[in-house]
Amino acid sequence: MLLIDGMMDTLYLLAQGVTLLIALYQFSISLFGIVRRREKTTHEASKRFAVFIPAHNEERVVGPLIESLKSQHYPKELFDIHLIADNCTDHTADVGRFHGAIVHERQDLENVGKGHAIKWILDKLNVERASYDAIVMFDADNLVHYDFLRIMNDKLCSGHRVIQGYLGVKNPFDTWITVSLAITYWFDNRMWQYARSRLGLSCALGGTGLCIDYSVLHSVGWKGSGLTEDLEFGVRCLQNGFVPVWAHDAIVYDEKPLSLIASFHQRLRWLQGHFNCARCFMGQLLRESIRERSFVKFDMAVYLFQPMRTLIVFAMSTMLYVFNLPAFEGTSSLHVQQFIPEPVWVLASLVVFLEMALALALERVNWRAYVGLILVPFFLWTWGLVSVQAFFTRRNEKWHHTQHRRVIRIDELQES
After folding, report:
1. By the 8 A CB rule, do 355 and 31 touch?
2. Mean pLDDT by 10 residues, the chain (416 residues)
3. Distance, CA of 121 to CA of 132 (rounded, Å)
4. Which helix (H) or strand (E) holds 393?
């Protein structure tokens, strides 16, 4: 029993220590997101873009996306909109043609998912010898700010090769789920992504609102497999010397699921892919960061560890609650020690909550978001449940389609 007690105490102490160190690390990084310096575009429009929209049965929402793209403050002759109607059984292709997109219909029931669709269109354009300077990709439910391509052009002309746009939410106040997700996005955009950009660190690629120089695609390649092909691509870019950068004013608005169940399934897919990517690359990045003395690679390794940290925090809090119930009193092997005082954890949680409120103020979001803060602690707790299932099903690479139904147009968002 003493041996079991000792082993559990040691593991619990290590888990607490690692979790607290990462929390302190993230807090230190986030401080650089408080002050924001506005960036001005200084380059004339010159880059030619291939805009990719992979879409599976998205007839209701793809039209407004194409409209927002055709309203870009960027010369129309310098970008083409390519809609990939991927295994569609509805009128997605017809809607795309009606709105003036170049439609490519793909039927492949074995290689299903967005990553495979992107690889397919890249191969197709290579065969056709299409001439583009960069690609930009969006999900079919997105809306795009009028200045998006102009800002991406400026970033490319400034020498950047992989750029991630700001990930906004087009339906933040539909349900408590959408407002909770929106709050976490506003927080991440400002206190994670923007803060890291100020330090010259890599941003995390989000899969939509992503701009890639065509030469990087030839150098790094695009793999269609996996549930988070964007995250893997970002890691491989870093390993090949291309640091993905953040464009805070290039905004893409994403539709979030309305219900907890739909949100659970979407986040499950994200975390399954994240766990797999961490398994493949986290060790490599840590070794390379030490060998090359690269803070950028170390920071990416920390980012890959985040789902495991969520899992550890969830497991620790559950163990602490369950094993210290009166029913377990006197059962030493099932009792865990709280080595780091409880007030420290309370303070850490309070700091995160206050930083979220600060992020909302810095991003100047609607006052209704502050009301949503009340529900965020419970929503964050559900991430623990998602991470547990994702960890034990991480080898599952089956793609699940998220249905999108919210028809909003870009001018409605600009007016709100």
Report:
1. no
2. 62 80 94 91 95 94 96 96 95 96 93 88 83 95 96 97 96 95 97 96 92 92 74 92 96 94 91 90 95 96 92 76 58 57 80 94 94 92 91 75 71 66
3. 13
4. none
Please give the Cα distance from 262 to 331 (Å, whole number): 40
Q: Which helix (H) or strand (E) holds 169?
A: strand 162-169
Strand order in the sheet with 49-55: 102-106, 79-86, 49-55, 134-137, 210-213, 162-169, 245-254, 143-144
Nearest alpha carbon to residue 157 among 40, 49, 76, 47:
47
- Name the nearest CA neighbour of 152 among 162, 142, 139: 162
- Token match 């001018």: residue? 411
Whose CA is closest to 93, among 56, 67, 128?
Answer: 56
Check: CB of residue 123 under 8 Å from CB of residue 234.
no
Distance of CA 220 to the CA centre of its chain: 20
pTM score, whole prediction: 0.90
CA 171 from chain centre, in angstroms, equals 17
Torsion from C-alpha of 211, 215, 220, 225, nearest 10 degrees: 50
How far from the centroid of its chain's Cα atoms is residue 314's Cα?
21
Q: For residue 340, how many C-alpha atoms fall within 13 Å in the half-sphere facing its CB?
A: 19
Distance CA 416, CA 414 (A): 6
Phi, psi of 213, rounded to the nearest 5 degrees: -60, 135
**Residue with structure tokens 């575009």?**
41
Residue-wise pLDDT tens digits, 57-75: 999 999 999 999 999 999 9
Q: What is the pLDDT of residues 279-313, one digit of tens each?
A: 999 999 999 999 999 999 999 999 999 998 888 88
Alpha-carbon distances of 210 from 115, 201, 203, 376, 384, rounded to whole Å: 13, 17, 11, 28, 28
Q: Running DSSP on this structure, what letter comes out for residue 193? A: I
Query: For residue 85, what is the DSSP state?
Result: E
Q: Are 97 and 103 in contact (CB under 8 A)?
A: yes
Helices (H), 252-294: 260-292
Measured at the alpha carbon of residue 215, what is the angle toward residues 213 and 219, in degrees to the nearest 5?
120
Q: Annotate 36-80 with three-state secondary structure.
A: CCCCCCCCCCCCCEEEEEEECCCCCCHHHHHHHHHCCCCCHHHEE
Whole-angstrom Cα Rg for the chain: 22
